[in-house]
Amino acid sequence: MKDKPTRREVLGHAVRGATLVGLGGLGFYLIRKANGEGVWQIDCEKCVNSRLGAVGVEVCDYCATSCVLGLSAVRAVNDYSICGRCYICPAYFDIKSAVNEEGLPSQKLCPRDAIDRKPIGWVDPDDPANNYYEYAIDENLCNGCGKCVMACKEPAGLNSIRLVVRYDLCLDCNRCTIAIACPDEAYERKPLSEDEGVG
Ligand code: SF4
Ligand code: SF4
Ligand code: SF4
């Protein structure tokens, strides 16, 4: 039998996967960055869905419903370097739903079934609660509704999911309709800094 990998090995594997996911809008991002232009971005410290301390409040879905595109340019991404790979992820499961025969919540939280769950690394065949789970968001299905972002916060989550603007999809409207609708002034146009570039 293979040895159970260390947590560092499991996380290293997952971070490489996240890097690949983040390459989608890289070309567009690099062009805009080279030109020194600002782009529409979400300040996660202001957005109610990701802001720490904003717990037990209503999810804001304006990023999903206010974009001029049919499917919003905003999508959720999971930062695997933070994700705890929980057995029962509150962003994947609707933890208020009835428990099924496996002892898991019977319903998923995402209304678009955009989150995939699979065990990674060494798998304990006898006790699934011993395993690490990867929660991958399909950005082609996600519409940025923010439900999973709000759910992955204290006390149950680690705040690893956030909303980002996909720069390869965004039309860069002069007056972004999401920015106009945003109740938290979290949607801003500003130059990208060195450490930004997911999209
Ligand atoms: S933001 Fe909404 S649609 Fe996207 S993965 Fe999260 S719950 Fe699903
Ligand atoms: S700038 Fe336009 S396309 Fe981009 S997120 Fe805002 S409304 Fe959507
Ligand atoms: S509209 Fe503003 S507060 Fe609402 S989800 Fe988007 S960035 Fe967050």
Name the features.
single chain, 199 residues, alpha+beta, two-stranded antiparallel ribbon, 5 helices, elongated, disordered N terminus, binds iron/sulfur cluster
Order of strands side by side in the largest beta sheet? 1-6
What structural class do the secondary elements suggest? alpha+beta
Instruction: List bound small molecules.
Output: iron/sulfur cluster
Largest sheet: 2 strands, antiparallel
The tally of strands reads 6
CA-CA gap between termini: 40 Å
Helix content percent band = 10-25%
Low-confidence stretches: 1-24
Beta-strand percentage range? 15-25%
Series of H and E elements: HHEHEEEHEHE
* Rg, alpha carbons: 18 Å
Q: What is the oligomeric state here? A: single chain
**Could you report the average pLDDT, rounded to the nearest whole number?**
85
Any idea what the shape is?
elongated
Integer count of domains: 1
Total of DSSP H or I helical runs spanning 4+ residues: 5
Overview of the molecule:
It is a single chain. By secondary structure, the protein is α+β, with helices and mostly antiparallel strands. The protein has one domain (7-191). It has helices at 7-21, 26-34, 62-65, 147-151, 177-181, and strands at residues 38-42, 74-78, 115-120, 132-137, 161-165, 187-191. The strands form 3 sheets. Strands 1-6 form a two-stranded antiparallel ribbon. The protein is elongated and about 55 Å long. The protein binds iron/sulfur cluster (3 copies).
